[in-house]
Specification:
By secondary structure, the protein is mainly α. It has 16 helices and no strands.
């Protein structure tokens, strides 16, 4: 029988670190093959092809971000029920999660493909890169089932305290993705469709590996009766998942608006912003990972009604967030031009990218603490404030871009990120203070 991992007992730092590092390495490997796509496309097909692929980043964040937000919300319920020790409720929540995920995947695939072209035109995609953006997007959205299956299996495994299996899956799929990229683009002469096909195939492989592990866990082996519809469970799943999904989508809409401003400046700026987005996604990974680890840790301990462990976990998470901020600052600030030149060719795009990276490097502590606090609030079953913080992120990006773009040029995109992180961090910090007090009082009265 395969093991699951209880995070409600034992040393808090030890449990968090054991759960944290496999997630970190998983996320890093995902970014490695994302960066491999970037380098191979940029160096093999040119800066315009890179701009075409990067132009899809905000749109894919909108669709795939909504999907992963739903899966993350489902995992909160699963982790809470695992922490409570109710095995029947645990199996039921997993079974109904599978049903909801299947419906979600079909809807997102259809909607994404139908609206891809109108959205690309809406964000003022240049004619030079429109066809490549469409081709790449159709393949990625057409393969959304593979991405959804991987995220579903990963979310369930992590809710059960297993962060190692997704890591093992990504090791294999990353290697396959990079090899396929090289073979399709350099060997067969494929364009951006080669990078897209390699991504979809590697996601499907990851999903298969994670599913095999889940299938061997007796605790969550599903029965026919587990799939019976239950209104209360559906409500709980949707209450936690929809706000998280909306939050991700609202953040993506804000990014799409920024992308529209950037695209209006020309293809050089689109290519630079694509490189900036890749590096930003890489350097916020430690903060995302701390938040992911605390999401499961908080959810399980919230289900077990152990607020003192939640507080201890938050303190340790804050220490990790500060440490990774200092490491990221040291890695980015002195080497911004080198990082930009690693994936770009033209001097102007390198200059623009390096300036953006320096602004972001100094501000990463904001986003690190944002992920920490937001995931703790979500793990305690309160997703509405995080959703409102997503609205704040979207709203703050727009006036910052409008004000700074004529005055500072491309760097306005970096200041828009900083403003969005600051507003969202304040909202989640205030909410957390209010949400943890009732739980502490409940614990004292037990």
């Amino acid at each position: 029988m395969e093991k699951t991992y209880d995070l409600t007992n034992g040393s808090v730092p030890k449990l968090i670190l054991r759960f944290f590092f496999p997630i970190l390495f998983t996320n890093l490997l995902q970014q490695v093959y994302s960066m491999a796509d970037t380098v191979i496309v940029g160096k093999g097909l040119g800066d315009r092809a890179l701009g075409a692929v990067g132009n899809l980043s905000s749109l894919t964040l909108l669709v795939i971000g909504f999907c992963t937000g739903m899966m993350g919300g489902f995992s909160i319920v699963i982790a809470q029920r695992y922490g409570s020790g109710d095995r029947c409720a645990l199996r039921q929540s997993i079974a109904l999660t599978v049903k909801l995920s299947a419906v979600l995947c079909i809807l997102l695939t259809v909607v994404g493909i139908l609206f891809l072209r109108p959205v690309l035109l809406l964000i003022r995609t240049g004619e030079e890169i429109l066809d490549d953006s469409l081709l790449y997007g159709y393949i990625i959205l057409g393969g959304l089932t593979a991405t959804a299956a991987y995220n579903l299996c990963t979310s369930i495994l992590r809710a059960l305290g297993d962060s190692r299996t997704p890591f093992h899956a990504i090791i294999i799929s990353s290697a396959v993705n990079i090899l396929l990229d090289c073979f399709l683009i350099f060997g067969l002469g494929a364009g951006v469709e080669g990078a897209a096909a390699a991504t979809v195939f590697s996601q499907a492989l990851s999903a298969l590996i994670c599913y095999r592990k889940l299938h061997r866990i007796d605790l969550v082996r599903l029965r026919r009766e587990d799939f019976r519809s239950d209104a209360a469970t559906y409500r709980e799943l949707l209450k936690n998942s929809l706000p998280t999904a909306y939050m991700n989508s609202l953040i993506a809409v804000g990014c799409m608006i920024v992308q529209g401003f950037i695209n209006n400046l020309g293809v050089v700026y689109t290519s630079a912003y694509s490189a900036c987005s890749r590096y930003l996604n890489l350097f916020i990974l430690p903060g995302i990972t701390v938040g992911s680890a605390l999401l499961t840790f908080t959810s399980q301990n919230y289900g077990a009604r152990k607020p003192e462990r939640i507080r201890e976990g938050m303190r340790f998470g804050a220490m990790l967030s500060i440490l990774f901020y200092l490491l990221s600052l040291a890695a980015i600030y002195p080497f911004a031009e080198t990082l930009a030149g690693a994936i770009l060719n033209e001097a102007e795009t390198i200059r623009l990218t390096s300036g953006y990276l320096r602004v972001i490097a100094a501000s990463l502590f904001l986003v690190n603490f944002l992920f920490l606090l937001r995931n703790c609030v979500q793990g305690m079953g309160h997703p509405l404030i995080p959703m409102c913080s997503g609205i704040a992120e979207m709203v703050l990006r727009i006036p910052i871009m409008m004000y700074f773009l004529p005055r500072t040029g491309f760097s306005a995109a970096a200041w828009a990120e900083v403003a969005a992180w600051t507003g969202s961090l304040l909202l989640n910090g205030i909410a957390l203070r209010f949400y943890i007090r009732p739980l502490s009082s409940e614990r004292k009265n037990m």
